[in-house]
Design a protein that fits this description.
Chain lengths: ~110, ~325
């Protein structure tokens, strides 16, 4: 497990030093607000299928862009969903943590 | 052409990526953009199977956990379809479960890469899979070629004639099968020796290849027997082609053995001109026509169902 960044600290890609990755990281940083928005909407609509899919995609892709903390936060939320947990209120802590981290993503 | 399997593959290899996450597509296509690969993107198992069928990629990368058809079922479907079963398939998955890996390999995947993706490793594994694919294609091709003549061999003919027959009965098209045999080959061998006999077999093959179109298939059927499959060619057209090969062979000079005059006989069977119910019957008809050509004096082409034209005989000198 990577260390969880302290509150308020930006979440940055571990590949930020690799010039080849810059364009990709930029893409990820630009894209993440759309992902957050889609996830928040699904959450408000209690659409468990959509939530699971969006969280699964975040889990699968974030690590590749150097955002392993997001992958791990997404995995923590995806796991109970996959187990069939459909009481979203019980997952509020994991959800909040994921959204918070996503909102702090910076180049 | 319905089953053209000889298209050269020297353009960039096509890699099909099946993953529901657009971010993964972006990541991979960007990181692999200098590898000389052409990427096809599918965002679901269903779309992936469709694109694999249509585009015949050199490599497939597939995610396991997707909405709709899961990755394992995508592999299962790919491996049970003759059109896609040869394509090397690699899994890219977030799963580290041993059971997921074992199942993927059992279903026919050749590699398993875990997310998050380590790009140098992915590059190396893709390179290795493509090399393997090329070698397999080369072996497969070699296994279809007759060593002496460079024509397709008997094993290829048996497969190809069946495929041609099946596609004909589906599409109501026409095609001709020609069985041909070098005349008096045993005498030629006994008189001039086996190397001379071989040179005539090679010479006939070269003339046939030079005369045929690229969509035609020339096979060495047995010792001095050959089979030609001529798509979209009626009996009349096939007879013209056979006569052209026949005349070129007869006129051919054999510098190592100037005494040789080689000739051949041809039996032609056309579909659908002949009510042919099976591949076996098609071959049998061509064989019967060949027998008639031999019987009528050799060095001629006979169409199955026609009387050999006695008056048009050309002396074999």
């Amino acid at each position: 497990m990577s260390a969880t960044p302290q509150p308020e600290q930006p979440v940055r890609s571990t590949y930020a030093d690799d010039p080849e990755m810059h364009e990709l990281i930029e893409f990820f940083v630009d894209e993440i607000p759309n992902r957050v928005e889609a996830l928040q909407q699904a959450w408000q609509e209690h659409d468990a299928d959509a939530i699971e899919r969006l969280v699964h995609q975040l889990k699968g892709s974030s690590g590749g862009y150097g955002f392993q903390v997001i992958t791990e936060a997404a995995a923590a939320l995806e796991h109970p969903l996959k187990q069939g947990q459909d009481d979203l209120d019980a997952l509020a802590a994991e959800y909040d943590q994921l959204i918070k981290l996503c909102n702090r993503v910076m180049f | 052409m319905p089953d053209a399997d000889s298209t050269p593959k020297d353009e960039s290899p096509i890699v099909l990526l099946i993953d529901d996450s657009p971010m993964i597509h972006r990541l991979l296509t960007f990181k692999l953009k200098n590898e000389g690969l052409e990427f096809l993107s599918a965002f679901s198992g269903e779309e992936g199977l469709e694109l694999a069928q249509e585009n015949q990629p050199s490599l497939i990368l597939v995610d396991l956990d997707m909405p709709g058809i899961k990755g394992h079922d995508v592999i299962r479907a790919l491996k049970s379809d003759p059109k896609t079963m040869q394509i090397p398939t690699l899994v890219i998955s977030g799963s580290t479960e041993s059971s997921d890996k074992v199942l993927a390999f059992e279903l026919g995947a050749i590699d398993f890469i875990t997310k998050p993706i380590d790009l140098p490793e992915l590059r190396a594994r893709i390179g290795s899979a493509l090399r393997l694919h090329r070698l397999m294609e080369m072996l497969e091709q070699r296994a279809q070629i007759d060593g002496l003549t460079g024509l397709k061999n008997r094993a290829y003919f048996d497969e190809r004639i069946r495929a041609s027959f099946n596609s004909l009965s589906r599409n109501k098209q026409t095609a001709s099968l020609v069985m041909c045999d070098l005349d008096h080959f045993k005498i030629l061998n006994d008189t001039y020796g086996h190397p001379a006999g071989d040179s005539v077999i090679v010479g006939f093959s070269a003339i046939a290849l030079r005369t045929l179109r690229s969509c035609d298939v020339a096979c060495r059927y047995g010792g001095e027997e050959f089979a030609l499959i001529l798509p979209d060619t009626d009996a009349h057209g096939a007879k013209i082609v056979c006569d052209r090969i026949r005349c070129r062979l007869e006129a051919n000079a054999w510098p190592a053995n100037p005494g040789i005059t080689a000739t051949a006989s041809f039996g032609i069977a056309n579909i659908p001109a002949n009510e042919t119910a099976s591949v076996e019957e098609w071959i049998e008809s061509a064989d019967k026509a060949l027998y008639q050509a031999k019987h009528a004096g050799r060095n001629r082409a006979v169409v199955f169902g026609d009387e050999p034209d006695q008056s048009a005989l050309r002396p074999a000198s």
